Amino acid sequence: MKGYxxxxxxxxxxxxxxxxxxxxxxxxxxxxxxATGRAITSRSWEFGTLVEALLExxxxxLTVFGSDPFPGGLIPQISDPSEVEGLAYAKSVIWINGTxxxxxxxxxxxxxxxxxxxxxxxxHHDPRYLEAAERQAEYLMTKAKKFHVNxxxxxxxxxxxxxxxxGDFIYMVPPFLAYHGVATQDLRFLDMAVLQCQxxxxxxxxxxxxxxxxxxxxxxxxxxxxxxxxxxxxCCSDPDVWLTSNAWAVAGMTRVLATILKWxxxxxxxxxxxxxxxxxxxxxxxxxxxxxxxxxxxxxxxxDEGSGLLKNYLDGSSHRSAAWAYGDAAGTALMASAMYRxxxxxxxxxxxxNAMEWAERNRRAVARHVHSGGRVSPVADVGHVPSKSPxxxxxxxxxxxxxxxxxxxACKEGTSWKAGLQRLTGWL
Length: 428
Ligand SMILES: *[C@@H]1O[C@H](CO)[C@@H](O)[C@H](O)[C@H]1NC(C)=O
Ligand SMILES: *[C@@H]1O[C@H](CO)[C@@H](O)[C@H](O)[C@H]1NC(C)=O
Known about the structure:
signal; single chain; two-stranded antiparallel ribbon; disordered N terminus; mainly alpha
């Protein structure tokens, strides 16, 4: 089965392109996008996203999208982080002085967790990073503010002052919890990663209106708080369907899915093989369903005509958010990146020409919005919630375009296909 993974994905591209491995041209220069992003990165989730973008760009094999991300059932052991740019960067920003969180989250216990995977990858180099990751994970599991979902369940709040669920959470927390579960061989964390995706969907899912007047249900409101109306001065309210937030959710769930599908507990693990296989099969269905609902509505919604980009808000043209539904290169890039990843992970669903053409069209639209020096615009303003006017650059926008580049490259080069075939036959 593994051997089929990339051929479908690769088949969407010409063989000539595929063989041209040295410098795949995505229509923009990823190094410039990266350099511009690095220079403007200063906040917790921006650090974590840039680190993930650096890892996927320079050290793809260390990420959950690599062909063998858990050799022998363990996370990779890296002794010298100076050889891994993403980890050298992470090391320079992660706090190891005993705080609950990996860095200051400005009122969010979730955003700092975006650095959690990198902290775990630094644990072999220095055990203080493992301890810091453990404090962050424990804080989220036990101490963080909870949002009451129903009589049996509560979700982890994205913010600490009042219970709030933001779609953004799904990129910051579940990928870390799942990775932490693998690193510590503790199924509780993997379970929690999947459960949070379900609980967030339960609360945030809503309908959008398509051009033909039909309603599509599957995408999420940006933020729901408890109570729904916040006191003046408390961050933040946004009940509408924000592209970037939905892209965080789809891309985050894709990372969780990759982690779960690619891990195999080692023989001496406290996680039993049968128990894990059951968890894996169930999680695959749950995550694939959530992702499918979200992507289906995203693909069905009309794009911004002028720019060819996806719209900043997806509620539909008769909704009040239509007034600020300009084309957004950042959210478009992250959605496209998830689609390239899914083409490799779930080829039977996303390896076909429909999904690939959609991803390719969005990549080309994004490429047209990478300006000289690597600046990406227009992009959603992260300084205002709701995000009503585009800005000319953001750190996350730069990282999202880099994430798209790496996902596109991996899909196109069929790295997992080649690696899989190599393992099977040994002659490539
Ligand atoms: C930990 O280190 C950070 C960054 O150097 C600093 O801002 C923070 O106050 C320190 N916290 C504690 C509890 O020492
Ligand atoms: C609460 O919501 C979760 C997530 O959707 C669901 O799995 C669970 O069954 C619900 N519990 C009740 C009592 O409805």
